[in-house]
Amino acid sequence: MVAYLLIGAAWQIPFYSAVVTGLEQSGTPTENVALPAIDAPLAVSVSAAILLLLGLQWLTIVTIRTFVGGHTQEIPSEYYTRNIVPVLLNSLVGGLIYAVLMLVGSVLFVIPGIIAYVAFIFTVVYIAVEDKNFIAGFRDSWQLTRGHWFRLFGLLVIIIAGIGLISGVLTAMTSLVVGAIAGEGIGILLSGVVGLPFSLLILATLAEAFTQLRESQKEMVTS
Question: Which of 12, 14, 81, 139 is most enclosed, with most CB atoms within 10 A?
Answer without folding.
Answer: 14
